[in-house]
């Protein structure tokens, strides 16, 4: 015995002289064809629903984008009270954006100043090392001249 996708129990094919019972095989094939046809119809129906849902989503998204960018349109769509809330939120967002840009510029300048300070510190350290080497070199050279002068 075996079960089909419709969860119906089927008898095993009866074995006849050379193979299976043709009528049982034909009945099963007919049932399978019907299941395939139903599944294909369901797929087509779901694809149509998906396409419609995508169109609805795109239209709603565009309406929302336009409403958010145009307070008058938002007022018409949402009503006066909701429009005031939207305008207030839009103003707050604009203020936050300006504050963030200002803070970003300050941070940027602080980062640049810190980098310059670090670079200047490195340059200063390098100059000090070069001056020490130069001073040592001068001292060594001076000693050599003094030693040569003492010989003469």
Would you kindly provide a written description of the structure presented here, covering whatever features stand out?
Helix 1 packs across helix 2 and helix 2 runs antiparallel to helix 3. By secondary structure, the protein is mostly helical. It is 84% helix and 5% strand. The strands form two sheets. It has a two-stranded antiparallel ribbon with strand order 1-2. Strand 3 and strand 4 form a beta hairpin. It starts with a strand and ends with a helix.
How do you describe this structure in short?
It is built from three helices and four strands. It is mainly α.
Strand and helix layout:
Blueprint: E1 2-3, E2 9-10, E3 15-16, E4 19-20, H1 22-69, H2 71-78, H3 80-151
Antiparallel strand pairs: 1-2, 3-4
Helix pairs in contact: 1-2, 2-3
Lateral strand order in the biggest sheet = 1-2
Report the average pLDDT across residues.
Answer: 78
| Topology pattern, helix = H, strand = E | EEEEHHH
Portion in strands: 5-15%
Tally of individual helices? 3
- Going by helix content, strand content and strand pairing, the class is mainly alpha
The global form is elongated
Largest sheet: 2 strands, antiparallel
Low-confidence residue ranges = none
Distance between the termini: 124 Å
What gyration radius follows from the Cα positions, in whole Å?
44 Å
Q: Into which percent range does the helicity of residues fall?
A: over 70%
Q: Tell how many strands the DSSP assignment holds.
A: 4
């Amino acid at each position: 015995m075996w079960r089909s996708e419709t969860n119906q129990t089927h008898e095993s094919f009866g074995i006849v002289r050379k193979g299976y019972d043709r009528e049982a095989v034909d009945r099963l094939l007919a049932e399978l064809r019907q299941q395939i046809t139903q599944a294909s119809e369901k797929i087509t129906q779901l694809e149509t629903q998906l396409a419609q849902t995508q169109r609805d989503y795109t239209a709603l998204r565009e309406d929302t984008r336009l409403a958010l960018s145009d307070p008058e349109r938002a007022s018409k769509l949402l009503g006066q009270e909701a429009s005031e809330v939207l305008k207030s939120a839009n103003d707050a967002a604009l203020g936050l954006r300006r504050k963030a840009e200002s803070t970003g510029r300050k941070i940027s300048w602080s980062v640049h100043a810190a980098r310059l300070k670090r670079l200047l510190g490195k340059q200063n350290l390098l100059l000090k090392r070069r001056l020490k080497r130069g001073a040592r070199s001068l001292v060594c050279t001076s000693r050599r001249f003094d030693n040569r002068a003492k010989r003469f």
